[in-house]
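FW: tagging you since you asked about this chain on Friday. Here's the raw sequence from the shared folder, copied in full. Didn't touch anything.
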Amino acid sequence: MTTGQQRIERAVQVIVDRGEGASERYKGGSGYLVGGTYVLTAAHVLEEGATHLIRTVTGTQHHAVPRVVSDTIDVAVLQVDDESFGAGPGPAGYGVVDRASEDLVTGCSVVGYPLFKRHIPHVGTDYKLRDSSHVRGEINPKANLTTMELEFRVSAVATPQQSGRLGGPDWQGLSGAALRARYPRSEDLIVGVISQQIVPEGSDVIRAVAVPEIAGDPGLATVLGLRNVSSLPVLPYRPERAPSHYLATVADVERRTRVLLDRDDWLAYLEAFARGGAQDVDGHYLWLTGGKWSGKTALQAHFSVQAPADIDCVSYFLGDKADANSTRYLAVVGDQLARLLGEAPDTTRTGTGGPDTYRQLWEWAARRADMEHRPLLLVVDGIDDDAGPRRDLPSVASLLPRLMNDWTRVVVTSRQRPRLPADVDLSHPVFDATVRDLGQPSPTVQARTREVERRHKLCPVCKLSDEAGEVPVIADAGYWAGPHQSRSFESSSAVALPPVSTLSRQLRQFGSEHLLALGCLGVIAFWAVAVVIALVASLAASGDGGVFAAIALVVGAVVIWYNHAKSQARLRANAKIVWEQLWFCNRDGVIYWPETGQYMRPGDLRAFLYAPATQALAGQYAPRAAGPATGGTPGTASSPDLPAPPSGGATPALR
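HL: got it, structure written out here
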């Protein structure tokens, strides 16, 4: 049976051949391909010693043999033993009718081969074929509670009425057909097998054996895979609960970028990946990387909010400080999965059972995705912002799902692919994720985001400022020099010629550690002084010209010393301007300049203060009084030239 035929209909006609000597050689019923070569039908349709055939909707006939015939209920299973049949369709889904429900189970249907659909005899045979009939109706859950048979009440049938009645005795031949009920976002579920009609109940009422009764027969339960009825979907279907409140947060993230430009290809790529159609992705994990402000979060937020209707998207964003831990991840993702499954949201998922409940919900969601052939995508943005390990919490990466199938995918984003935390097992599929880079943002976006960071004094590493302070204020607190050790501007910016006291202390320390080198230095200094004295003396002894030469030598030395001191003062003044605008982030242990986004470790501070690039920028950021032409505010620091924001104050789109 080909895939195209499977998609048409699983319903088949069951033909019983009693043999040439029988007074009535052929009789027929209905059946349903429940998976592979198994056909579900009614037990009274079959006869011992007869030959059984099935006929598909495309007209092909195949030999079949009884596999299980129940002695207690009117249900049986045939197995097709014809090699030309092929592998058959995949497993069908089952459901259970809640017999305590006050609501009708609507959207029910039966496709079978009743007697009133007889056609002319088939060429080469002496029996009449039957065409399919599509019967629709509803189930009354509280009817037939004594026998536990389902009451299927017909509301529409695609045939003319027979003898002025709807169906009547002509329902004969519908026995064995599967009674199916509509289930949201899924193929219709089998809830029973048509078994009989009791005429006094009305010509529009047909009875069926319910799935729980079928599962009560060990032989049928084994063949049909109905060992755990409690895990089956329950009908009438409870309407889906309100969507997770976290989706409002995702929508707010999406609104930060009003228009997503030049990302159509990436949106299409994510959709293809979710459906399993991305050719360059091996496995079920995709890891997107990109520099700061490259649009990772905006892309994921737009896709999460605007995902196609047939893709279930569960998302989580770690960018916010309050969300950057696994406790919050378990609560938010667990809530989304529960609502997706129609379960009640559980506010206790952040407790001890959080990981267990989360994994169980993912398993159910993955199973549902596989059964319904509906893609399930988990999006985790900014996984490198996870602060959980620093708070003795499991990392978010360690909680990413391991259980994957053909219909489940995971997308992870970060600035760079970091080293995964130690609590992530080496066998985790995230290690095999396919890495793709988003590239860099446009210059306009870079300038705009640089301005945002400058105004909010954000740390370039963690993008936060809650544990940051101005360097001049905290300089004496010993943040980067050790407890009770000052790192004032003087000690952090000393250059070529430090103060005399500092120089003498450094010389003494150097001499105690390098006696031989100090001796050599003393000898060189002695001879240098002797040469200078001799030169001055010779010039003085040579007459008036020598005196003027000695004076010129002294004046030149003074001028050189003065220019050097002036240069040193200018360097230190520019360094002081930068120093007063530096911030220190205690979270990351870095010193940064909010005006430019540059950052360094404390040990590199002196080199940074006297770097040519820093010295050149210092004058631009020096506090100065604004003249009438600029219209600025006196005493405010000027900023470098930045592209003007779009008119109307609109936030530019990330590229």
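FW: The mean pLDDT is 78.
HL: agreed, and Residues 247-440 form a domain with the Rossmann fold fold (CATH 3.40.50.300).
FW: great, closing this out.
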